[in-house]
Amino acid sequence: MANNINKIDELFANYKKAGKTAFIPFISIGDPDIETSFDIAKALISNGADMIELGYPFSDPMADGKVIQKSYERTLKNRVTMADAFNFVARLKEISEIPVIFFTYYNPIFAYRTSEFADSASAAGIDGVLVVDLPPEESFELKQFIDKKNIDQIFLLAPTSDISRIKLITSYAKGFVYYVSVTGVTGARKSLPSEMRSKVEEIKNIKDIPVGIGFGISSPEQAEEIKNYADAIIIGSKIIQFIENNLNDKKNIIKSISEFSYGIKSSLM
Amino acid sequence: MKYPNSKGHFGEYGGRYISETLMPAILELEEFYKKIKNNKEFKDELRSYLKNYAGRPTPLYYASRLSKLYSSNIYLKREDLNHTGSHKLNNTLGQALLAVKMGKKRIIAETGAGQHGVATATVCALFDLECEVFMGVKDIERQKQNVLRMEVLGAKVTPVNAGSSTLKDAMNEAIRDWITNVRTTYYMIGTAAGMHPYPEMVRDFQSVIGKEVLKELKQINKFPDILIACIGGGSNAIGLFHPFLKYKEVKMYGVEAGGFGLETGMHAASISGGKPGVLHGNKTYLLQDEDGRIKEAHSIAAGLDYPGVGPEHSFYADKKRIIYDTITDKEAIEAFKLLCRLEGIIPAIESSHAVAYLDKIKKEIKGKTVIVNLSGRGDKDMETIAGYLSENKIKKEQHSNDK
User: Fold this and answer.
1) Active site residue B71
2) Where do the domains of chain A lie?
């Protein structure tokens, strides 16, 4: 049985007291290969990541933009399996206490068998699961198993979410609510919608729950602005871009991601 | 019990497995469709377009030479004579009327063979809507004529170069566009698959096929023993089958694309050769590997080249109410040639799969009344056929040279 207090909940409780905003980077397990992605995770942790979101590749990532699509294509070529992913998390947990959020689409979980997924995820030390194509309406088939393991099921809210969706999702949400900043797929954007702040406030008015913002964030300047009203920022595509740009230069991947991570973290201080 | 239930489930299949960004749009669509589907004005308007624009009802043609060959009574439901050359227009007319009433000005669609793309481009021209069709580059290559047709109708055809570069990838890209432009855009899905309410809605619009067959047979005092239709996503099949489901004595065969043969793994038979999973918003039978990654489908028929199937088919497959079986590329081509020569009808390669099934159950159909859904015409397939025949001719020549 897992600890009584979920690590994600614990972190947000502490950060709330301290008035801090968490930095959650996203990488996909096995991009560009398992060992390098493990080193990237370590580099992110030592350069300011407060939690880490690990993407498990799916062949048809419908909510993802080009950068993460290509990242998943690389990992699929490396034949990363669910067993590899659990092993990755377990190894990471040996060297760090950092909360781990597992990010994927539903079919790989369903193919693994949902109940067995919950068992293995818990054994590996996964703290939260975010399944992009599992809205509350279809979430029970996963929830019934991961709830028992004290794993948080993270849900998304979007600019299109109206009051009734916000009410529904905040009533299901555990850990934090992941607010998708734009109507669109994942990918770095130069400018973000101005309605973000009011939307986060709208969510918090309905339920006092931590809100993380992701999709589109790519710079320390954006992070610095968002920290004024959000509890976490999530950055994926911008980090993956460093991998794509340096595919044959592992050292440079680690170096550029470390610097970027440090820059984001500094902007949140 | 009515299927789907209020949450869009057909037993364990169907549902709404989609990103939260799309949920409000899906719920809006569901509400809208619920309100309008029994509205008299809407039904009259659709009926009028189906009659005066599409040319319905399509004939139910007694294929006498084919019947003689198999010692049975074979009727072809001539969806190939529907405007634009396939059953696809039945659905796009319905959805376009709906989209107009919802105030949407931009339509997106995915297409495989291009038949749904053409049917979408057609209604967009008719109702003055902006139209963008996503199509895999592999399909663009093998269905050039349909690409041209879409373009002359004013649609933008966007090539999709990802994954297998066929229908599944076109659908991924359409969904990504929808996530991005959901506030202004209506997503016109071409088959009875995807997230609720699409499987139900597309089935309802396509059920005009089965309803007409019932009426047409009644006029000649007949009732069918067996129904046969090809299955890609399965919209022409569910359109024919659905009005007959309540008649327990009617046997139904859904013919999946067997490609090079089930045993080769190179096919598009999701039910016969796949297992349940979740893709494109619904739980259904899928071609996938043991890690849950979607496998590439293979069929000579671009319109069947999809690694999934509509959830209602998965449901009736498990219940064994509909029997699903496969026809290979080669068998489909033989049936294509047979129908050309015997009846003077050039069928789509997709529909040729259904025709080919007659031969597979020739003992069973003796003396029986059989309906084959001729879902589309084969003009679009001439290049594919020419390619296939010349390839085989080369193989044959090589074979005889070897001797």
Assistant:
1) no
2) 7-14+21-262
| Chain B residues 165-184 with CB within 8 Å of chain A | 168-169, 172, 175-176, 179-183
Task: Provide φ and ψ at B236, rounded to 5°.
Answer: -70, -35
In this structure, the answer to whether residues B284 and B298 fall within a common structural domain is yes
Largest CA distance in chain B: 70
Q: Which of residues 349-378 of B touch A (CB under 8 A)?
A: none
| Number of other residues whose CB lies within 10 A of the CB of residue A96 | 15
How does DSSP classify residue B347? B
Q: Are strands B9-10 and B13-17 parallel, antiparallel or unpaired?
A: antiparallel
Q: Is the ipTM of this complex over 0.90?
A: yes
Counting the structural domains of chain B, the total is: 2
pLDDT tens-digit map of B265-277 = 999 999 999 999 9
Going by pLDDT thresholds of 50, 70 and 90, the confidence category of residue B97 is very high
Starting at the edge strand found earlier in the chain, the sheet holding B323-328 runs B60-62, B73-78, B369-374, B226-231, B251-259, B323-328
Q: On the CB side of B191, how many CA atoms lie within 13 Å of its CA? A: 33
Most B-contacting residue of A106, A120, A133, A164 (CB-CB within 10 A), to test interface: A133
Taking the Cβ of residue B161 and every Cβ of chain A, the question of whether any pair is shorter than 8 Å is answered with no
pLDDT tens profile B80-94: 999 999 999 999 999
What average pLDDT does the segment A205-218 reach? 95
pLDDT above 90 for B143: no
A17 CA to chain B: closest CA distance, Å?
30
The predicted pLDDT at position B34 comes to: 96
Active-site choice (B79, B110, B216, B312): B110
Whether B180 sits inside 8 A of A137 (CB atoms) is no
B172, A180: Cβ pair inside 8 Å?
no
Q: What pTM, to 2 d.p., does this model score?
A: 0.95
Identify the CATH number of the domain in which residue B367 sits: 3.40.50.1100
Q: Give CA–CA dist A108/B288, Å, rounded.
A: 10
Distance (Å, rounded) from C-alpha B286 to C-alpha B278?
Answer: 8
- The verdict on B80 and B133 lying in the same domain is no
pLDDT at B13 over 60: yes
Domain boundary among B181, B202, B223: B202
Token couple for A96: 């760090």
- A and B: number of Cβ contacts within 8 A: 115
